[in-house]
Protein 1
Amino acid sequence: MTAAEDRLARIAYLLAECPPPDMAAGSGRCAHGPWPCVITQAVWLAQGCDRGQVRAAYQAAEREERLPHWEAEAAAGAG
């Protein structure tokens, strides 16, 4: 294992990804901000996921996120 790989393995061990929020309940955030937060993305990269995998996971989370209730109500009223 190279020194760079060893550092990444240590970072991945020390950090823990945030669990996905309850998107069905309208929560798209973890303690650090919108999920997946930068901590979660850093862990995924340190674990060996490439940027494409991280981007795909982020886009999937965005697709599943519901509109805030005020936007959903406005959209329902307009329709």
Protein 2
Amino acid sequence: MIFYYYTSMGSVPTSSYKIDAKKAEDITIRFLQQHYNILGVKKIGFENNVWVVRANVSAFGEDTKEVSINAKTGKIISWH
């Protein structure tokens, strides 16, 4: 079965990538839990072979963090 993820560039078959949206969400939560309390995932986007996951977090007040993940390797490219 092939699943498609819809982006601003059209649909992308997720079977061609090692990391799907759910795995990108899991990677983001595990990474951010090292420093913050996770309140929830706000948005997941995909563009140019990169998953961008935004999550609401709390340490000493609520904030939004964004994590970019390579869709082929699952490695975190950047976060802020």
Protein 3
Amino acid sequence: MNVALVDMAEAGERLGAGEQAYEYQTDDRTLRILGPACGFGPEHLQRLRSEGLYAESLEEARAHARTRNVALTGVWFVKQSQ
């Protein structure tokens, strides 16, 4: 699987068009907030969500980031096959 990091402006457009995030990038490179396109099972995602490490939406990712005093800097998306 290939993923590509895009800035927040482009990410907003892509998310608005219905594309799903693989991961939300923060200014703390050690913090991973996974998105719906990550492909993990529902039980694992529920645990990650309760820990603030999974978000269904950009707004939820921002909320998780705020609780950790970090900012979102970009979003990883799965690259489309050409």
Protein 4
Amino acid sequence: MNLQEEIKSIIDDKEMTYDEKRKKLLKFMAPHEVRAMLPEPLEVVRLKETLKPKTHNMRILRLSVHSEIFESILKGGHVECRDYSEYFKSRCTYEEGGVRYLVPFDAITFYVGRGARAKWATVALKDIVFDNGLLYFHMGEVIKTNLG
């Protein structure tokens, strides 16, 4: 039996657990190759999802706010409003084919202060509305926080 056939027989074996298959495959392959060939069982994926909030691969807008507004954001239901200045035009929109579009942000991270000790909260973004030269950010639930 050649190496490819042996790897296939390990993967197809119904009586071996995921961990047993993984240990055997690690003898022949690098860890990243094993992960690619042997997907994790659904229970492991669900456990990982509950352990840490998803913020990777998200488009996150970062804004600094005063502490009173930050407390309001943590309570929920806050709508942040910003002037549609050249600064926000460059951060929140892009131009394609002569038409300007809003960047589809997934969340906003609000900061109070600067540096390593700054408080911050990442909040899901429900909607961005442009009206009369103002940008309104409608927020959902708090995803992650660091309260100092």
